[in-house]
Automatic annotation (TrEMBL):
It catalyses: L-leucine + 2-oxoglutarate = 4-methyl-2-oxopentanoate + L-glutamate; L-valine + 2-oxoglutarate = 3-methyl-2-oxobutanoate + L-glutamate; L-isoleucine + 2-oxoglutarate = (S)-3-methyl-2-oxopentanoate + L-glutamate. The gene is ilvE. It comes from Tianweitania aestuarii. It is an enzyme of class 2 (transferase). Its cofactor is pyridoxal 5'-phosphate. Keywords: Amino-acid biosynthesis, Aminotransferase, Branched-chain amino acid biosynthesis, Pyridoxal phosphate, Transferase. This is Branched-chain-amino-acid aminotransferase. GO terms for molecular function: branched-chain-amino-acid transaminase activity. Pathway: Amino-acid biosynthesis; L-isoleucine biosynthesis; L-isoleucine from 2-oxobutanoate: step 4/4; Amino-acid biosynthesis; L-valine biosynthesis; L-valine from pyruvate: step 4/4; Amino-acid biosynthesis; L-leucine biosynthesis; L-leucine from 3-methyl-2-oxobutanoate: step 4/4. SUPFAM superfamilies: D-aminoacid aminotransferase-like PLP-dependent enzymes. Belongs to the class-IV pyridoxal-phosphate-dependent aminotransferase family.
Length: 296
């Protein structure tokens, strides 16, 4: 079945302070964000009518814009309220939330000092990638050709559209070979992350995850580290060399979209989703479930 294109969904989009009909939330082709990637965005999930870690995501949106040299003209509080109101208006309880901010059309060149800063929020229904049973089989990753750039080469702490160019390329290359996603190394050749999620490994009952020093320190990553510590697990944030992949027993990805997704394969290396992945998957589900729903 062909899915409905995203510009043809129903409902409302919050755009520059107003709720506009989904079909009317348009930008001109001469938009700086489209040509020069002067755009930042967020990906959030609502569970049971509440957006998980909304404040953290909105702060990161603001921070990402500042890193790209522009200021979003709506306070964090205004954006938080707009997200909540839009979720109610769309009538969804479990959904994906996509705020985006970009430079407009006033100047068309590398310099865009006078361009209006636009901001929009869209919310659509987007179920979990896989059901838990399927998820526990683990997904297969290829090794990506592109590497996460040196922070001296790109503003790697920002969730900026431009940084996703190599992610789409890597994901497409992996999908063409039948893989679900790709593992990217960083500019030094160390293990970094997947194309839209952070990565964790298990060895001798302890967690190992790369230091987030040249890619997004995901909000899910931080949540999972906290959940693991609550379980008394040791979490080693450190440089991980690709040669070490053969020494890990379990592997999983973390991200707002991916949640906690076990991995069964990275290129030639095999992993068996086990107790720790399962435990953290369940703990994450419990953590994102609003307390009053969990109590019912
Ligand atoms: C490249 C990349 N890394 C990591 C993450 C995980 O971030 P978070 O857990 O904040 O969603 C994402 C998802 O936003 C991502 O796109």
């Amino acid at each position: 079945m062909a899915s409905v294109p995203f510009d043809q969904l129903d409902g409302f989009i919050w755009m520059n302070g107003e709720f506009v009909k989904w079909a009317d939330a348009k930008v001109h082709v001469l938009t700086h964000g489209l040509h020069y990637a002067s755009s930042v965005f967020e990906g959030e999930r609502a569970y049971g009518g509440e957006i998980f870690k909304l404040e953290e995501h909105t702060k990161r949106l603001h921070d990402s814009a500042e890193i790209l040299g522009f200021t979003i003209p709506y306070s964090e509080q205004v954006i938080n309220e707009a997200c909540r109101e839009l979720l109610r208006k769309q009538g969804f309880s479990d959904a994906y939330v996509r705020p985006v901010a970009w430079r407009g059309s006033e100047m068309m060149g590398v310099s865009a000092q006078k361009n209006r800063i636009n901001c929009a929020i869209a919310i659509w229904q987007w179920p979990s990638y896989f059901d838990p049973e399927q998820k526990l089989k683990g997904i297969r990753l290829d090794m990506a050709e592109y590497r996460r750039p040196d922070p001296r080469t790109a503003p790697s702490r920002a969730k900026a559209a431009g940084l996703y160019m190599i992610c789409t390329l890597s994901k497409h290359a992996a999908e063409a070979k039948g893989y679900a996603d790709a593992l990217m190394l960083d500019w030094r050749g160390q293990v970094a992350e997947a194309t839209g999620a952070n990565v964790f490994f298990v060895k001798d009952g302890q967690l190992h995850t790369p230091l987030a020093d040249c890619f997004l320190n995901g909000i899910t990553r931080q949540t999972v580290i906290e959940l693991a510590k609550r379980r008394g697990l040791t979490v080693n944030e450190r440089a991980i060399q690709p040669e070490e992949l053969s020494t890990f027993s379990e592997c999983f990805l973390t991200g707002t979209a991916a949640e906690v997704t076990p991995v069964s394969e990275i290129g030639e290396f095999r992993f068996t989703p086990g107790e720790i992945s399962k435990q953290l998957m369940n703990d994450y589900t419990a953590e994102v479930t609003p307390k009053q729903i969990a109590a019912e």
